[in-house]
Amino acid sequence: MNRVVITGLGVVTSLGQDVETFWANLIAGKSGVGMIESFDVTEYPTRIAAEIKNFNLDKYADKKEARRMDRYVQFAVAASIDALKDANLNVKTDTDPERVGVHVGSGIGGLTTWEEQHRILLEKGPKRVSPFFIPMMIANMGSGQISMITGAKGPNTTSVTACASGTHSIGESFKMIKYGDADVMICGGAEATISPTGVAGFCALRAMSTRNEEPEKASRPFDTDRDGFVMGEGAGVLILESLEHAQNRGARIYAEVIGYGMSGDAYHMTEPDPDGAARCMAKALKDAGITAEAIDYINAHGTSTPVGDRSETTAIKRAFGDHAYKLAVSSTKSMTGHLLGAAGGVEAVICSLTIKNDLIPPTINLVNQDPECDLDYVPNVPRATQVDMVMSNSFGFGGHNATIILKKFEA
Description:
Belongs to the thiolase-like superfamily. Beta-ketoacyl-ACP synthases family. Keywords: Acyltransferase, Fatty acid biosynthesis, Fatty acid metabolism, Lipid biosynthesis, Lipid metabolism, Transferase. Its EC number is 2.3.1.179. Residues 1-408 form the Ketosynthase family 3 (KS3) domain. It is a single chain. The protein is globular and about 65 Å long. Helix 3 (71-86) packs across helix 7 (141-150), helix 8 (165-178) crosses helix 14 (343-357) and helix 11 (274-288) crosses helix 12 (306-320). The chain has 14 helices and 14 strands. A hairpin with a 3-residue loop joins strand 13 (389-396) and strand 14 (400-407). It is 34% helix and 18% strand. The strands form 3 sheets. Strands 5-4-6-7-1-8-14-13-9-10 form a 10-stranded mixed sheet, with helices on both faces. Strands 2-3 form a two-stranded antiparallel ribbon. Strands 11-12 form a two-stranded antiparallel ribbon. The protein folds into 2 domains: 4-248, Thiolase/Chalcone synthase (Peroxisomal Thiolase, Chain A, domain 1, 3-Layer(aba) Sandwich), CATH 3.40.47.10; 256-398, Thiolase/Chalcone synthase (Peroxisomal Thiolase, Chain A, domain 1, 3-Layer(aba) Sandwich), CATH 3.40.47.10. The model has no long low-confidence stretch (mean pLDDT 97). The chain has helices at residues 19-27, 63-67, 71-86, 91-94, 111-124, 133-137, 141-150, 165-178, 196-204, 243-248, 274-288, 306-320, 333-336, 343-357; strands spanning 4-12, 34-35, 48-49, 100-105, 156-157, 184-191, 234-242, 255-264, 297-299, 328-330, 359-360, 383-384, 389-396, 400-407.
């Protein structure tokens, strides 16, 4: 079986639209959350989000192509092109395109396109609905457009598992390379649901923070005063390669992927079950062939919801036993917001950089730690320490759980 390494990273987030800016802002403990500006939120209980401002696809695709992409697809394409550039890899000229695959997940897909075309249907009738409505909206079109633009002709698919989508996409890509179905995978997640319907839907669930007067302090995982998640948007994409393929072309390696676990709660539509998350982490440890004590840091799902943060804390303690109290755990959603299906992709980028830089990003806004959340959450400031092994968790509505494990690369 092949060893699998990470050779390229790409992000589009409210904290930065390139990896260097994104990492600098993350380590500085900056929040990407602010007032929603893309539509009128006067009547909404939640009026804040981690919105991406001044995004421009022009340097990635021509304007005609861009008009035929939903916003989430645009994010996916931009992050993928940047990740390939970071990996110094041209799919068409540097390798066999039939051995390069794409697996970019999205929890919801083209919600903004759906809203716009539904408005046109109601106001102007069915004949005015765009012929591009369906191919712009469907959740697999991120992977499809990336393939068409880059020339990747290998395995091409999409995970749609709510907030676990990005991590499932990376985990499945890891397996494809491990078992020889591809040499390279472009993988991660993309999402763009900061829209009237998207925000209204999550408001109706009472899942989001209403701390509208202090947007930067609204996402506060593991804090006693947390009152819900803050929605984000964007994309996080990684280039995975077999070690042999990467070494043959002299690629720089950020980290190695060594484990992947997945499980189902079989419990509730929206409420998590700590047993499912604990089993997922245990499966990832088993897949990696390591003990719990080997993990140095967990990038938590950590959404800032009252139930979710307690559940994940319980799950970590069940999976790790006494070692849970020796781990560093942080939630970078405190800065990025919750990117739903893109969260796992962005957080895998963060984990890669954490290993590369031996620097753990903080959980900001952690002022009064919840007594039921009693682990080391790296509060408010980054921590410089040797980081050899990292776990990243993602849990989605429907009881979908995904965990990946990365380690510092050793030849």
